Fold:
Amino acid sequence: MNLRGKRILVMGLGVHGGGLGVARWLLRQGARVTVTDMAASDALTAPLAQLSAAAAQLGTSVHYTLGEHRAEDFTGSDLVVVNPAVRPDSPWLALCRQAGTPIETEMTLFFRACPGPILGVTGTKGKTTTALMLAAMLREAFPDTVAAGNLRVSALESLETITAQTPVVLELSSFQLERLGEAGLSPRYSLITNLSGDHVNWHGSMAAYTQAKAQIFAHQGAGGVVVLSAADTGPGSPIWPTADYRGRIIRYDVAAGADAEARIDATGNLTVGDETLAHARDIRLPGAHSQANALAAAALAHSFGVSPTQIATALRGFAGVEHRLELVREIAGVRYVNDTTATNPAAALAALEAITTPIIMIAGGADKDLEFAELGAAIVRRVKALVLLEGSATVRLWQIITICSNLRSSIDHLQSVAGPYHDFTAAIRAARGRAEPGDTVLLSPGCASFGMFRNEFHRGEEFRRIVHGLAAGDAE
Structure:
C-alpha cells in the first residue's frame, strides 16, 4: 500500500498503545494523519506526548480532534483506521460508508502488509498466556518470532523486523476478529483456547460472539490449521462452523481418557497423534487450565514444525504472564495474587480451580451481561472470605452467591463477605484483615473494570502498588 500523502483519520487513540502504534506507523509511511477521540486531551496525556515526539522526529505534525468527533474528518479523509473497540454500528462509520471512505483497522492493515506467516490465538480465557507460550515455543526454533496483537504491542510497528521467514504470533480479540472477518482475512495457523460467555453486551448475542471468534479460521483455505478444544465441539457445546472447512482441524482435550488428536495421556505426556511433545511436569503454571493452554499451544507449534525437544524446553522456561495469576508479594505467610484480567466469570472460575490454598477473593465490578451462576456456586464452595468491589455487576453477583449459600448451607465454605468498596485500598486492607498465614488474597474480579478503573490493567497495577505499600497492621 502506498499511503504517502494520503489523508488518514485514526479513530480512537486509546491508552493501550494500539492507536498510538497505528498513528506512528502511518506517519512513517508519509501519510497526513488526523487523530480523533471522544476522550479529552487530559485523559490521553501519555499517548499524545509520545505521538507528538514521533511526529517531531519525522519533521511532520498530527492534527487532533479530541473530546468530540466531526463529520468533516470522516468524509474528508482518504482512509479511516478504526479502533477495534468502536462498535460496527457506529454512526460515524455509517457516515464513512455513505461517503465511500474505506475503513481499515490496525489488524487489517497488518495482515495486508505482513510478509511472514501469521499464527493467531483467541478464546474467552487463556488467550494471552497461550499466545505467549506459543511464541516461546516458536522462538526455540525461530529466534526472531514476533508476538503482538491484543498484547499492548503494536503489530504494525513490528513490521520493520519481519521477513518472509519470521513467524508472527497474534493474540486476537473478538472485536479484532469481527473486522478481519469483514475483510475476508484469517491467519493461516489459528487456535481457539475455549469459548464461554463474554462481551455479549457488545456483540448482542452469544451466537454473534461465537461467529466473531470463528473468523480466526473462516477464511484460511486448504492450507490452514486450526486447533480447537474438544469440549467446545461436542454435543451441547458451541459447534464451530467447520462443515465446509478445507484445512486441518486439531482437537485437543486434557480430560482423562480423551480420544482427541492432542491430549494428555495417563502418564502425563502431552501428545499429538502418536508423538509425545512434552510432559505435564514441564508446565510451571498451576491448574488444569494451564495444562490445556500448554497442550493447545504445543499442538499448533508442532504443526508449524517446532520439535518436541524445543516445545518442552520452552514450557520449562515459561513462568507466566503479568496480571494473570501473578504472585505479587507474600506478607506474613499470606500470598497476594493479581488475576485482574479475569474480566469474565469463566476466567475467575479457572483461578479458583488453580489455587489450592484457602482464598480471600476480591471480586465484582462492571457488568457485561454475563451469567454468574457457576462462579457464585464456586465462591460459596471454595472461598473463605469475599471482598466485593463496587460496580454494576456486583449486585447480581451477590444475589447469585446468596441463592447458592441458601441452597448449600450445610457445606458452605464462605465465612464472611465485606463491601462493596469504592475505595480499592480499603478493599485490599479488608482482604488482608481476613487472611491468615497459608491463605491467598486473590484479585480475580470476574467482571469488567470500568467505573473504578480506566481498564483491567490499571486495576492490576493499582493492586500491585497497594500491596507493595502494605505495612504491618494495614488491615481493616
Summary: The domain at 326-468 is CATH 3.90.190.20 (Protein-Tyrosine Phosphatase; Chain A). The longest strand covers residues 383-389.
